[in-house]
Structures
1.
Amino acid sequence: MRTKRDFPPKDFAIRIKQFSLLAKKHEKYESFTRLWLYPEGNTSPPENGKDHISLYLAIQDTDSLPKTWEVNVDFKLFVFNQIENKYLAVQDAKRFHEMKTVWGFDQFLPIRTFNDAFNGYLVDDTCVFGAEVLVIKPSGILESIHTVNEPSNGVLTWKIPYFPKLVSTILESEEFTSENKRWRIRLHPNGYGPGKGNSLSVYLQLIEAEKLGPTEKVWANFELRVLNIDKDRHVRDTFSHWYTFKEFHAFGQHMLMPLEDLREPFKGFVVNDTLTVEAELLFVTGAKVVS
C-alpha cells in the first residue's frame, strides 16, 4: 500500500549525499539501522528489482533470540519528496523468523522516476529514506466459537395434561440436553407481561446460564410451537438470542397466541384437556475465551 504524508518516519531515516557515487560503488548499502538499499535494484534471483530502487528492512540482534523465534511486524519504508515536502510510504506486514530475516520491496521506486530531479526524490544528488516499525505482539487471547446446525436431541415435545384447569402462574417442562447444555420450556398458561390475561407466553430457558463465565455465551436460534390437531394450523415463531450469565435466562414470546383460541375446543389446540408445546433448536453457537 502506497501513501503520502507530511511528517517524517518516527523510527529512523538515512540522508544520502552524492547518491550517484554511492550507486556506482555499492551494489547494496546496509545502514546501521538495518535498512538495506540497492541503488540500482536487487536483481539476484529470485528478486525482481531490475530498473528499480530496491529497499528492505532487516531485523537486528537475532543472536539473542530463541532458536524458534518469530516477530510479526507492520512496517513502512519511506522516501522523501523534496519538492512536495512529503514522504512516500510503502507499507506491508510480514513475519520475520530465523529463515526469513529481511522483508521489503524489490520494486520500491523506478530508477528513472527516482533519478529525475523534477520528481523531487533526488535533488542535488541528495535523498532521504526511512522506516517505521510496529511489532505486533499477540494478546494471548483466543476466543473459540463453535456453531452447530440442527443439533442432536434438539427437540422437546411437552404434553401438558388438564390444561383448562390449570391455575399455576408458571409451568416448567422436563429438561433436555443438547450440545452439552440443559434446556427447558417455561410457560405461563395465563400470560406474562403484555400477554397477561390475554395470551399464552412461552419461552426457552438455558438452565444454569448464571454459571456461564463472564467470557462465555451461548447463542440459540430456535422455534417455539403450539401444536394443533391439524398440522397445518400449528402456531409457531422463530427466535434468536444470546444467553449470558448476566441476563434473564429464558427467551421467547409474551404473546405467542391468544388464550381465547386455546379455550375453544373446536380450534383444535387442546385435545382431551391436553396442550402440546414444542421447542426445537435450529442452530446453536457457543463462544468462549479459552486463553
Note: The chain has a mean pLDDT of 93.
2.
Amino acid sequence: MSLYRAFTVLGLCLVSLVGMAQQAPVDAYGADTQRANALLVKAVAEYKAKGDTAMAEFSRQGAYVDGELYIYVVDTSGVMLASGGPSVSLVGKPVVSVLDDDLKAALQQAISQPEDGIVRSAEYRWWNWQHGKVERKRVFYQRVKDRVISVGYYMPRSSPEQAQQLLRQISEQVASNAKTTVELINQHDKQLTQDDLYAFVVDLKTKRFVAHGFSPRLIGTDFKSLRSTDGKPIGEDILKQMNAHEAGEITYQWRNPMTGQNEYKRTFLQRVNGYVVAVGCYAIK
C-alpha cells in the first residue's frame, strides 16, 4: 500500500473516532475486546510511568504485541510516534501534511479530544496486511497528555443481526424489482455486499442460482446439487425448507471470503415471489 494511501486511510479512521466515547458492545468479539483493552491499559500505564521512552518499547515485537494486536501512538500534531505493527513505516511522518482540507480539519478535531481518562472506541476500515485487503477494524484509544495511545483488532465476521438486517433489505428489493436487485448483487454493489455479508438468490422455478454476491461462477448452476465444503447437500435442504416455509435458516461449512478459511456459516432464508433470498454470517464453532 502506498504511503499516501496509508496516510489517507489513517486520516479517515481518525475522522471516525470523533466524539465516540462508549462502552465496547458485547458481541462475538468479546474476547478480542477484552484483550485489546487489557493491552491498552498496560500501554497507558507504561507511558505514564516512562513517558516518551516507552515509544521504543511500543514499536518492538515484545510486551506490547499480543498476536495480531499491537499498540500505536499518534500525537496531537498528527504525527505517528510508535507502532508495533505494519504501520511502523509511518512512524515520524506528519500525517496532517498529506491530507486534504476536509480530512485535515476532521483529523485535528479527533486528536484534540480531552485528556479525561476515558477509553473511546470506534470502527473503521483499514488495510489488513495479513489478508491483503481492507477490512473492518475496531479500535480502542485513550489520550494521555498530547499522545493518543491506541490498539485495535480486525472484524472479519459479521453478526447474525447484521445478516438478518441485510436479508430484510434485499428481500424487500427483490419484491419490488427482482431483475435490478439480482444485477446489483452480481455486480457486488456495496449496499448489498458488505465484507463477509453477501446474498445469493435462487429461482424456485428453474432451481438455479440467479445471483451470488461472492462466487459468480455459481450463477446459472444447479442449486439442488450444491454441497457444503464438508459434503452436506445444502441445496436440497434449503429447497425442502423453502417449499414448506416462507422463512428459515441452515448451518453448514463454507469458505469465508474475508479469512479464506472454511468456517461454519449460519444462513437465513426468505422466499420472495418465486425466489429464495439468502444471507449468512460466519462463526468459528
Note: The chain has two domains: 27-152, 158-281.
3.
Amino acid sequence: MSDHPEPTTVTVLAGGLSHERDVSLRSGRRVAEALRTSGFDVDVLDADAHLLPRLAADRPDVVWPVLHGAIGEDGALRDVLEVLGLPYVGSRPAACRLAWDKPIAQSLVAAAGISVPASIALPQATFRDLGAQPVLAAAADWAGFPLVVKPSRGGSALGVAVVGETRDLARAVVDAFAYGDTALVQQFVPGTEVAVSVVETGGTVQVLPAVEIVADGGSYDYAARYTAGATEFFAPARLPDDVAERVAKAARGVHEALGLRHLSRVDFIVTDAGDPVFLEANAAPGMTETSLLPQAAEAAGIALDVLYRGIVESVLG
C-alpha cells in the first residue's frame, strides 16, 4: 500500500451548447490549469450525452461546473449532480434559478434593501396580445430614454442594448427575444460600472475588491467582455473607501439574499452619489483571462491556484 494518499479528483465541466460555449471552454481551461497547479487530479469534460455515464463511472471527489448560459446557470445540471450524489462547486439549484431570472433576482434584492433600477418584464405573449407598438410606447413614456433592454435570463451581455430613442426600441426588444421569451426593459442608471466577486473558503465569506469596467465603446457587451484590450479594467475600482465598503456590503447582501454558495459575481452601477444599484448576479462567473473574478483575486493578492484550492476544500468540508 502506498504511503501517499491519492490526490483529490476534480472534474471540470466546460462547453455545453449554449450561446456562451466558447467562453465556457476558455473558463474551464483556466480553472483546470489552476487546480492542477494546486495538486489536484483534474479532468475536463464537455456537457454532452457522454457526460453522465462518465461521471457515474468515474465518481470524482468534486465536480466544478464552469458552464455558462442556461445549462450552467439555471440549476438543472446541479439538480442532476445532486441526483448522482456528487459534491460540486457552486450554488444549489434553487439559488441558481433565482439568480438566473433577472426580474425575480431584482425583486428579492430590492426586498433586502438594496437599490435596483426600475424595470418591467415583457414576455413575447404581451406583445402578441396587446400589440407591440402600444406596449413599447407605454414603456418608453414610463421610463424615458435612455433605456436598457436585455433578455430576462442569460449572461455575457448577450442581447443587451442601450436604447436612446423610440425608433431603436423595437429592434432591441426583438434582439433580446433571440435569447429568451421575455425582455427586461429598465431605466438606464448613469454611473460607474463595477463587478464584485464573492467567494467562500475556510468557512468564511470573502468579498473581493470591486473591479471597475470602462468599455472602449461605452458598452460592456459580449465583444468588450471577451476581447483582450477592448475594455479597460481598474482593480480595485477607483472608488472612495467609504463607497467601496458600501459596494462590498451590498455584494455580500445580494449573495446572501439569493442564497448563493461558494462563488458569485454581482454587478452594480455606482451612482455619482456613491450608491450601488444592483444589475444582476452570476452564479457561474466567467474565469477567462479577461474575466472579472480572476482580476479581483489578483487585486486582493490571492493566487488563483490558492483561491480555487480553498473553494474545492470548502466543498469537501
Note: The chain is about 40% helix and 20% strand.
4.
Amino acid sequence: MTEYRSRMMQLAFGPMIGHLIGTALRLGVLDRIGEGERSAEELAAEGKADLQSTTRMLRALTGIGLLAETAPGTFAATETGAFLRTDHPESMAFMVKLLTDPSMLRSWEHLGESVRTGEPYFATVFGKDYFSFLKDNPELSEHFNIAMSQGTRVTAQLLPKACDFGRFGVVADIGGGDGTLLAGILRAHPALRGILYDSAEGLSQAGAKLERAGLAGRCELVAGDFFASAPAGADAYVIKSVLHDWSDDQAATILGHVRAVLPADGRVIVIETVLPDVADDRQEGLNYMSDLNMLVNLGGRERTRDEFAELFSRAGLSLASVVPVGPQVPYCVIEAEAV
C-alpha cells in the first residue's frame, strides 16, 4: 500500500514539479552547471538569488533526479538533467520550457470546462487562439520553433528507415517549420528534392538551417497557409505533428488542400501518434496527456487508426498503411493515397 500512496503523491505534486523544472530552465541553472560541478553559493551569486532558497531548489531538483549533490552544497547534472542544457547535442530545453511556460499552463486550470464543452480554453484566457498568440509574441514563437525542432530531431533520423522515400522525386513537408524533418529525409536520399511549406513565422529559421546543412539548393521554401492551399509539384506530402493541433473539420480541410494537388500516384505521409483502441499506460500516459493538452490549448486531438481513416476519407484519401517510426519515438508513419 505504501508504494501506491507514494505514487499518488508523486502524481499530485506533478504541477509543482513542472513549475520547478520550468523555473530552473528560466534561471539557467543547468546551463551554468554545465558538464562539471557548481556550488549553490556560486549559482545563487550568478543568478542574484537568495542562497538558502537556491539551495532548497537545487535539492528539490536532486530529489526528482535532475541533479546530484556530490558534496554538501555542490551539485552536478545527472544524465537526465543534462538534456535541459541548451548546448547538449540532444537538448530538450526548449521543448520543456514550452510545456512549462505560463502560456501553456494557464488553460489547464480550466480543464474541467474544456471537458464539459469539448472546446479549448486558451482563447478565453488570452483573448486569441494559441497560434495567433505566438504570432504576436516573437520570442515565444522562436522558442516554439526551436522546441518543435528538438521534438523532431530523433524522428528525422529514424523516418528514412521506416518509410521508403526513394520512390519519390519531390517531397513537400507541410507545416515543416525550420526543416529539421525534411533535412533528415533529403540527407538520406541525395537525388530527392524538397518543398518546405509553412507560415512566414514558421519558416523564419529554415533558410539558415538548410544552408548550414548544405541542402538549401535542393529545397524550396514556400510561405503559405495550409488552411487556404498546399503547394503543387510534389509526389509525396509529409505532415508531421500538425493534424493533432486541429479539430477534425480543420484537419480535413488541411488534407483536402493536399489532396487537390496530389498526383494520381502520389502519397500523403502523416507522422503522428496513433492511439490504441483500448487505453494503456505505455510511455506513462504521455500520449493521453498530449491529447488533453491539444484539447485545452488548441482544440485538436490525438487519434486512433480508425479515426485517421475517417479523416482521410473526408478528404478523398484512403489509408494504406500504418508503420511505427521506431522504438525511440511514439510516432507512426500513416500513409494514405488518393481514392
Note: The two ends are 55 Å apart (CA to CA).
